Amino acid sequence: MNPYLVRHIFLPLHERLLRRRTFRYYRDLEESQWWATQKLQELQLEKLRRLVSLALNKTAIYADLAGVDRCWLPESLEDLQRLPLLDKSIISAHREELVNRDVRGGPIRYNTGGSTGQPLIFYFDKRRQAYDKAARMRTHRWWGVEPGEKEAYIWGSPIELRRQDRLKQIRDWLTNELLLSAFDLSEQSIDWYVARLRRFKPKCLFGYPSSIALLCQLARHAGLDLTELPVKVIFCTAEVLYDHQRRIISETFGGIPVVNGYGSREGGFISHECPEGRMHITSENVIVEIIKDNRPAKPGEDGEIVITHLDNYAMPFIRYRTGDIGQPSNETCPCGRGLEVMKVVKGRSTDFIITADGRWVHGSAFGYVFRNIPGVLQYQVIQEDVGSIRILVVIDDDFPANGVEQIRESVIARLGSDVQVDIEQVSKITPDPSGKFRYVISRVARERSMALGLEEGKET
Length: 460
Ligand SMILES: [Zn+2]
Description:
Blueprint: H1 3-17, H2 22-32, H3 37-58, H4 62-66, H5 88-93, E1 108-112, E2 120-124, H6 126-142, E3 151-155, H7 165-174, E4 177-181, H8 190-200, E5 204-207, H9 209-221, E6 233-236, H10 243-252, E7 258-264, E8 268-273, E9 279-281, E10 286-292, E11 295-296, E12 303-309, E13 320-328, E14 341-346, E15 352-354, E16 360-362, H11 365-370, E17 376-385, E18 388-395, H12 403-415, E19 420-425, E20 440-442, H13 443-452
Parallel strand pairs: 3-4, 3-5, 5-6, 6-7, 17-20, 18-19
Antiparallel strand pairs: 1-2, 7-8, 8-9, 9-14, 10-11, 10-12, 12-13, 13-14, 15-16, 17-18
Helix pairs in contact: 2-6, 9-10
């Protein structure tokens, strides 16, 4: 599809049909990125006051949780620190009482199986969806990709949606997007993947860095040349982008930039790398705090990334703990944007699971398994050999009587019927000695990654 038509007709129409003000927000963001940081902070305070007022007055419980009067308002951005930190367990425990039912377009319920091994159900709204999309379009432009230009995704694809596949295909065609599954890469399928990319001719590629690096190594081993593709830039997100992955991906595509984005389903579009190599916060939509021992970390000091999403009016993600580690920075970026800068030090990471038919299934496949099963507080998938996997689950009273069977069926639907699935209920799952929690650990994938040249220099 002609990118001009997509940019000026189909994409705006698509957003309007979904009642999202994406293009209006996009125009605003294009302008405000050049504002001085101080002016952006004034906007943040104005938005924060509105957000806090909505949370205190439109949700049943936020005022009690926060321990402040319903008419309290922050006078400065520092006042945000008077509000409590929120995390997944608080949101799960009080979910329905934290919803603002009057939000424009209605609250949208979302189940995330979690790229952390901790499923979460939460609410967001059209406003946040539109801002996230607008912010994403803005960062694509930093790298020379205009809205409506062809983009291929390497991402999860829920098998439950098969009935809607045709509709989605038409939508993707009209909006110049191509979805390639992150669950089917293998030595056998790599020809097919590369053929699809050659036919589609994407301007950019977007997805999990581990899957894109895998695609690159499989293509190299099969003697397939990816430098002929018109891809100008690769956008990585949802997990840590390791230096060796960046190098493999860039080289395979002929030396193009490989760019890091940081965000999450519940946290939104938090920050993104600019051509000067700095991670800019989407300051218009998100306040980022880096917290160490209950105080703000100093520049260069590690702390937990805590976010406040200023444009989700459906549920207050105010001082929400992401579990990721970052560093604050008071650097100004040579690119001239006033958007604040941060560093993401440690984020989410996962292994692949290798199936008997040789597929490398990205760990996020288990997100699709667990998002449909209530009562799972945490899970971990362990693969010691190709024929079997072990799944540890921490559950509560909402876990259905046939929950174990549901998990087994859903896993088999994704990995194939020749896999032995052992499911164990445990009271807790401990992080590895480095303190990092891995929700998918596969010795098989580690060994094969090593053989394929994917593990070089990888942190553990
Ligand atoms: Zn910059």
